[in-house]
Amino acid sequence: MDIELKKYKKEYGHSYSFGVFPTLELLQARPEHVVRVLISPRGGKNEGVRKLEEICRRKSIETEVNERLIERISSKENHYAIGIFRKYSQELDAGANHVMLVNPSDMGNLGTIARTMLGFGVADLALVKPAADIFDPRVVRASMGAIFKLRFRYFDTFKEYQEQHSHNLYPFMTGGSVALDVARFEQPYSLIFGNESSGLPTEYAELGTSITIRHSSAIDSLSLPLAVGIALYEASKDSL
Q1: pTM assigned to the model
Q2: DSSP per-residue string spanning 128-178
Q3: Among 65, 86, 107, which residue terminates a domain?
Q4: 115 and 57 in one domain?
Q5: Are 192 and 204 in contact (CB under 8 A)?
Q6: Number of domains in the chain
Q7: How confident is the model over 218-239, as a mean pLDDT?
Q8: 110 and 228 co-located in one domain
């Protein structure tokens, strides 16, 4: 595979994990997709870097000490290690619970949600386009490598998702018909959330059971990552 090691672009067939911990997660969860690991000479005494080198030796993954290349890829950020990996595709687990994000746009939010999902035992993420690029290094960094332990798939429309998965649907909306604290979730379920600024389109209220998270009138809505975290806690608290 001919890889151009420059600042990340969405059209590339590869991406990067910036930092020691996300790269460790990459090596442990997706070693078959790792092309190379770049190491900074400044990280020689770092325990995490030594662990990276050990895993790479064990799995026969190439390492390279190259500060200039790290700086070229990551700009001014200060990283001891960067993983270079091929992008990959996968299917969602049809029998597992899902989170669906409709048109998410913020890279940091997407990474935070990925990490939160794993914390509450949900490892399948559906993304309805247009949507943020989950392989963007900013997402990988915000997730602390959690994306490598998720199954995720993009769908052109919600209808495409529904044709493949017959889950119980729970769209989260400001005017939802059931308050979260009294809602009951039948498995397998899909917890559905809209864009950070606009939320879900009104037609989603007709799908399954719409849920609202009650909060004070001092704010108009919760942030998307916080709403997802609260919803996952309530939906999964009896199974963890």
Answers
A1: 0.94
A2: ESS---TTSHHHHHHTTTGGGGSEEEEESSHHHHHHH--PEEEEB-TT-SE
A3: 86
A4: no
A5: yes
A6: 2
A7: 90
A8: yes
- Where b means 16+ CB within 10 Å and e means fewer, 100-113 reads bbbbbebbebbbbb
Q: Where are the alpha helices (DSSP H) in 30-149?
A: 47-59, 67-74, 107-119, 137-142
Range in 102-106, 121-125, 141-145, 195-199 with the lowest mean pLDDT: 195-199
**Which H or E element spans position 20?**
helix 20-29
Q: What per-residue string of b and e applies to 16-55 under the rule 16 or more CB within 10 Å gives b? A: bbbbbebbbbbbeebbebbebbbbbeebeeeeebeebbeb
Q: If we measure between CA atoms, which residue out of 9, 230, 3, 1 comes closest to residue 120? A: 230
- pLDDT at site 75: 73
CA dist., res. 17 & res. 25, Å (int): 9
Residue 2, pLDDT > 70, answer: no
**One-letter identity of residue 150:** L
Cα dist from 235 to 64, 98, 124, 146, 188, whole Å: 44, 11, 15, 20, 11
Whether residue 29 is found in the same domain as residue 144: no
CA dist., res. 189 & res. 82, Å (int): 36
Whether the CB-CB separation of 206 and 175 falls below 8 Å is answered with no
Residue type, 1: M
Residue 109 and residue 185 share a domain: yes
